[in-house]
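Action item from last meeting closed. Structure (179 res):
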C-alpha cells in the first residue's frame, strides 16, 4: 500500500492499495450475491435508491480485509492504537443518473470517516468536500481510500457514465469495552 498523504491543512488523507483488483472483484461479487438477501439492511432512500447497503462482513470475507486495512490507516492518522478503534462500513451503489446529497457522518462517536472505491467508471461522479475555506473535488479511482473528518460536509456529483459505480462508506470510532 502506498503511504497516505495530507491534502491542504484540513485533515484530508488518502491511501491507495497497490494490488486491489482481486479484492475489488470479491467485493463486487459479494454485493451482487447478497444485495437482495432478507438480512441485508438498506437505509437512506433518496431519489429512488438506497444510499447505504449493509451486508454482514461474515458473508463477504473481503469486507474484513477492508476493515483491517482502514483501521490500520486510521490508527496512523489519528495516532491511536488500532486495537482501540472499530470501523463500520456499507456499500454505496450509484447507478447512472444517481448522486448523493450533501451530508455529514458525525451522528455518533465517529472519529474519522472514509470512502473506498471499488468500481469507478469514467465520469461516474466526484467526491465534493466543502467546509470554507476548503472546497475540494476528488475524482475517484479504484483502490483509493479518502479519509476526512466526520463533520466534513460532502456530497457526490451525478454519475454521468452508463455504468454503476461502487464504493464503501466507512466510519471509524472508538472500540467500546464490550466490542
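Sequence:
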Amino acid at each position: 500500500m502506498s503511504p497516505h498523504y495530507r491534502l491542504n491543512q484540513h485533515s484530508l488523507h488518502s491511501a491507495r492499495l497497490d494490488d486491489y483488483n482481486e479484492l475489488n472483484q470479491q467485493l463486487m461479487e459479494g454485493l451482487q450475491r447478497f444485495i437482495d438477501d432478507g438480512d441485508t439492511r438498506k437505509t437512506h432512500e433518496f431519489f429512488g435508491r438506497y444510499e447505504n447497503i449493509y451486508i454482514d462482513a461474515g458473508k463477504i470475507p473481503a469486507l474484513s480485509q477492508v476493515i483491517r486495512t482502514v483501521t490500520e490507516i486510521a490508527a496512523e492518522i489519528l495516532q491511536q492504537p488500532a486495537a482501540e478503534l472499530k470501523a463500520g462500513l456499507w456499500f454505496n451503489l450509484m447507478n447512472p443518473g444517481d448522486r448523493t446529497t450533501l451530508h455529514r457522518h458525525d451522528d455518533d462517536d465517529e472519529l474519522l470517516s472514509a470512502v473506498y472505491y471499488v468500481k469507478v467508471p469514467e465520469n461516474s461522479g466526484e467526491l465534493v468536500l466543502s467546509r470554507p475555506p476548503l472546497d475540494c473535488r476528488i475524482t475517484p479511482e479504484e483502490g483509493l481510500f479518502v479519509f476526512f473528518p466526520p463533520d466534513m460536509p460532502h456530497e457526490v456529483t451525478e454519475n454521468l457514465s452508463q455504468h454503476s459505480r461502487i464504493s464503501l462508506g466507512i466510519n471509524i470510532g472508538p472500540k467500546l469495552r464490550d466490542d
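Note appended to the action item: Residues 1-9 have pLDDT under 50 and may be disordered.
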